[in-house]
TrEMBL record:
This is Oxidoreductase. Coiled coil: none annotated. The keyword Iron-sulfur applies. Transmembrane segments: none annotated. It comes from Raoultibacter timonensis. Residues 4-34 form the 4Fe-4S ferredoxin-type domain.
């Protein structure tokens, strides 16, 4: 049986926090617990015209990839509601092959 995960293209994450809210609502989590949590990296300047700034959603042990949703053929709540469409759900082997196509991605296998 294939393992599933989430590929995060953090180059395009807008920092909207929708993944956090969708996860909390789906699982009934209190406001201080998260299955998905957005972290901000930067901003800081690296040279005259180059800046480091990224929003990176990470996943806690609360994340079960929305097992109840995915068993019904639906996407995990965070993926379904991601406004920037920077989260992709699928088999780990397929997602891993996408990592080689571009930098600034992160493969999450909760």
């Amino acid at each position: 049986m294939a393992r599933y995960g989430i590929l995060v293209d953090y180059e395009w994450c807008s920092g909207c926090h929708t993944c956090e809210v969708a996860c909390q609502m789906e699982h009934g989590l209190p406001t201080d617990r998260f299955g998905a949590k957005l972290f901000e990296l930067g901003p800081w300047q690296m040279g005259e015209k180059n800046w480091q700034h990224a929003n990176v959603p990470l996943f806690s042990k609360e994340c079960d990839l929305c097992r109840e949703r995915t068993e019904k053929g639906k996407l995990p709540a965070c993926v379904a509601h991601c406004q920037a469409k920077c989260l992709t759900y699928g088999p780990v082997a397929e997602l891993a092959s996408e990592l080689e196509k571009k930098p600034q991605q992160l493969l999450i296998v909760p």
